[in-house]
User: What shape does this take?
Amino acid sequence: MKFKNKILSIFFVVIIGTLSLFITSCGGDKTPDNQLDDSLNISDEFNKAKQVIYGIPSPIETAMLMKRAGAKYNQDYLNPLSNLGNYTTTKSMALNLGVYSADLSFASMFDQSQASIKYLSATKKLADDLGILNAIDKSIITRMENNINNRDSVMEIISETFMNSNSFLKENDRGEIAAIILTGGWLEGLYIGTQIVKNTAQNKELMERIADQRLSLNTLISLLNEYKNDPNVQSILPDMERLKKVFDKIQTSSSRMEVIEKDGKNIITSTSEIKFTPEVFEELATVVTEIRSNIIK
Amino acid sequence: MKKIFVSFIILIMAVAVSNVASAQCKNFAKKICKLELLPYVHDGIYNATVLSEGETAELYKTFYAGQEYRVTVCGDENLPPIQFQVLDAERNVLYDNKKYNYAKSWDFKLQSSKQLIISIQVQTSDELHDQILSGCVAVLVGFMNIENTFNQNK
Assistant: This one.
């Protein structure tokens, strides 16, 4: 009987150890403040009837928008791969995982096969360093190499790696890292867009897509505010608010939306006017460049 | 001692089950719901959550002019039908899948870029159950590859 109890005690200790390890690993780095917040969040979950999800444009969507608007590829706009070794903090790794994901999407959208594979490898390294398990494994890189000339397959692979990363982070209670990655990707898309406009002939559609980013920025700020107690998020928010002040100088007006069917397609109609002066564009391009320089250095 | 041991085993099983549910939600979104997006390219953003009957969730997202989008909302097969509405910023209803037999997807494009709200509600079941039904619900957004798209000025 004594022996049986001893065995049970040992088993009990092992179970407690395993369980506490398991719970710690799921929670990540928790300060006492975070634990308090979690309990509030849990009670919020019970009280609120509605869950809100903020949808930020993914790097692949932004790259598609730029290509559609007539953008041309230029490798000089991308974050050089030689910077990869500089990213050692969680914040810099997450932001630049977003930046390199945007560069990867941009290169792939313009059929830059060698650049695409190199940028995929860079995103793999940062995802690994951030502990995002199996987001980009060796088989994905092989699939990318084997399908490099098929843009549909390449886009599918990039979409899959992005989904692997953000689902892993959200399900492991690391939503703030997913938000920071999206911030980096969104900002890089905006930077590339402004550089293209600055260095090529006037492109009205691309200018409009850049002005449209004011809408996504509002959503991005709402998303970041969900994690405003996180020090990394706290340090990013002022830059986003600074950008918002510039975007707020763009004057817009629009009519009520209606849905019509044309040629079997649903079209949400509404006219909108955007007053985006060259001065405001210059200010925006300057601020974006400054913020991005601090991120990629 | 035995009671404590059994309690801990139950606790471990509960943690494991919740983790499995989470992984199942991810797999459901990736392997089942994502197929509904085809031939649209998934934007790569994972929006899935566990909802119970009667519960709602809302996705706020900017949709861009000229781009063709497909929004797909799907839920576990044990859940009652899922209603989804597309609303403008003033919450005017632009689309309601309830009028289309709870269709899983809606394809559209916009003349000018707008922030839209995708509002999702799990309907309440007509059948009597011992407990409230709950399960994974995913909302995925896809866009048409540029080569396959139609001319927006048509």
Summary: The first helix of chain A runs from residue 2 to 27. Chain A has one domain: 59-255+266-296.
